[in-house]
Design a protein that fits this description.
Strand content: 15-25%
Distance between the termini: 12 Å
Largest sheet: 9 strands, mixed
Structural class: alpha/beta
Number of helices: 8
Radius of gyration: 19 Å
Order of helices and strands: HEEEEHEHEEEEHEHEHEHH
């Protein structure tokens, strides 16, 4: 196994959400509200910020045993929303492939799911400043014969549709046969059943699957620091972007980001750019 030290992934990741939740989000959504004195950020409903997220992207955003959303991104955004006086954050699960379009169409106010900021995605939505960066990983079985990404040629490689992993795989693994899934759980199920040979996903998500399934292994971790994760919002709302950025940087400066990172990514080195300025020394680089 080829392993590199992790700086939290941005990747993005995939989602498991029921059709009922999707329909509920659409029916209760509609066009974003106009900015008013009582609703300065043009939220769908003043006093509530509706968030499109993922239900199976642990440890970033997932539902616990009681069906409540939790994870690093969920706790961070909840803190940011409170600082920005946006109101109560209400999370709804979506398939990742449709999450950004749902935000762009004002079915939700914000998309929160460790969403990597790319030029292509910025054509659809605007983003807050970045708050995470990390690795993409190749998950496979111990008997697959795959020991690195160089062994993926001619193999069936799972990816979650619409993620950074899919984009990366299309560009860098042209000889692999890509099999697209709606979420990581479906892909890992296919991997365990032998329907695919490997799955390309976020490093932190990979760790949880390896802990759950002893027959799986990490074949390679690939650094991807050019697309940090950000909160997605519909275009044309600079007031909301400014409020999110201001609150986000305040959470970084007072150590809240650091505390949440240590909670959800224990043992993983931290990207210094997200630490309080007094703790920054230089831009970190991943070590082998």
């Amino acid at each position: 196994m080829k392993r590199r030290t992790l700086l939290r992934p941005a990747g993005l990741l995939a989602a498991a959400a029921s059709a009922a939740l999707v329909l509920a989000a659409c029916s209760s959504g509609g066009a974003s509200g106009s900015a008013t004195k009582d609703n300065p950020y043009g939220l769908i409903e003043a006093g509530t910020v509706r968030v499109a997220s993922l239900g199976d992207a642990k440890p970033y955003t997932f539902t616990d045993a009681n069906g409540n959303f939790t994870g690093f991104d969920v706790e961070l955004f909840t803190d940011v929303a409170k600082r920005a006086h946006l109101g109560k954050a209400v999370f709804t699960g979506q398939d990742f492939s449709g999450l950004l379009s749902a935000v762009a169409n004002h079915q939700f106010d914000v998309g929160v799911a460790a969403i990597g900021i790319t030029d292509e995605r910025k054509k659809t939505v605007d983003f807050s400043d970045g708050y995470l960066a990390g690795y993409l990983s190749v998950l496979t079985t111990r008997s697959s014969g795959i020991d690195s990404s160089a062994d993926l040629a001619g193999k069936r490689l799972g990816v979650v549709q619409g993620t950074l992993q899919e984009t990366y795989a299309v560009k860098h693994f042209p000889k692999a046969s890509l099999v697209r899934f709606p979420d990581n759980n479906a892909a890992v199920s296919a991997l365990n059943s032998g329907s695919i040979d490997a799955h390309f996903l976020d490093y932190e998500a990979l760790k949880s699957y390896i802990a759950q399934y002893p027959d799986l292994k990490d074949a390679e971790d690939i650094p991807s620091f050019d697309a940090p994760a950000g909160f997605a919002i519909a275009k044309g709302n600079p007031a909301l972007k400014k409020a999110l950025d201001t609150a986000l940087h305040a959470a970084m400066e007072d150590g809240t980001w650091k505390t949440l990172y240590q909670k959800w990514f224990p043992g993983s080195p931290m990207p210094e750019q997200y630490l309080p300025k007094a703790e920054q020394t230089s831009t970190p680089t991943p070590s082998k």
